[in-house]
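Usage

Read records sequentially. Each one opens with the input sequence:
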Amino acid sequence: MPEHPEIRSLEAERAVIGAILLDRNALPAVLDVVTPGDFDAEAHRRILAAVIALQDRGQPPDLILLADELRNRGHIEGVGGPAYLAELMDSSPSAANVAHYARIVHEKAATRKLVEAARRIIARAHDLNGDGLDALIAFSQKEILAASSAGAGSTGMDIRTLIKKTFRDIEERHQHGDALPGLSTGLVSLDTLTGGLKRGCSYSFAGRPGTGKSALLGGIARTVAGTGGPVLINSLEMPKDEVSLRFLSAEAKIDGYRLSRGYLKETEWPRIAHATDALAKLPITIDDTAGLPIDRLMARARRIKAESGLALVTVDYLQLVRPSQRWATREAEVAEVSRSLKVLAKELDVPVVSAAQLNRAVESRKDKRPTLADLRESGAIEQDADVIVFLSANESEETVNLTIAKNRQGPTGKVSLMFNKKLTQFSDVKREA
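and closes with the structure output:
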């Protein structure tokens, strides 16, 4: 297939096939690294496929049985006949280095896949069909990720290794006493129920307007950026200047309204300067693109993950994210976004935390307690999210109720948090001694 010899190695392919014929015990080590499709020569692909078929039937891949299998498949002449099989066996350097040669075959195969992906990307770039740059970037990332992961061998983990890792994790948490399985939200009462924000999980904080969803996500982002690593904030409702102002207000402990108008006391300027320095050091990226397409959101998250690492993605709020295509119903559009955020969490191995709006039905009830049925425009959020937390007003204007309505890895329950509206900041309720 390739014009460039550096993206294939027929010598390594022959060494792998020959080693299998020399020693049938070499086959498991080979199949843990490569598949028949990784071989560039069609003859080698057919030979390995025949060897696997023999193994599945419990037959050894000796020359006679292998030749018969290839003959039955109509491939014996196409692979060079029994003489070529004998030549492979005789020319193989040794079965001891088969894993090394298998890795060479796999690396060459991965290189060819990347070359083909690059060709498809170039072709797409010449024929955008009005899709725009965002669609091209998303297409390019998907092509490259697919090429780099295809044929990568088994990504599973045997139970012996996995259970030992699980035991070590439990032992470490026991030794530390208060260690969380996930990243801290900065709120002890919330962490107690959820176990923190776990990698690969999707979290939805849902409520009616004015219940503090944006403030809660902002506080979580600030905590994670200060202790856990880079954070990507997708603010579709508030412009980035307002997000920045809220961060500064909470950090400096100064009323956000006064701060925005410049109504400040002389004694407050040192606090602002200190807060500015502290926030400027945080690894936070804020995207306030209106109607942000889900493809672009995912593309930016992937890029940040590749360039500097990524600990958390927040989305405020989910129903404002634009789907990658038009669907027949609004529910289907929100469902695509919800599923994509869960996929992103799994793909990047980070928690993805989104705010979500509840419909007005909750306001018509006497107790005004949200239920999963109140999730606006989509039941897919209920299905996709690992944890769903409802925010609702409390009788006390100083507190907000958080109800964990769904928790795949822990208990449900309710906590109350202090909510300082002037600072747009949440904190744990102080208990009397």
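Summary fields computed downstream for this record:
- The beta strands are 202-207, 231-235, 284-287, 312-316, 352-357, 387-393, 399-407, 413-420, 425-428.
- The two ends are 76 Å apart (CA to CA).
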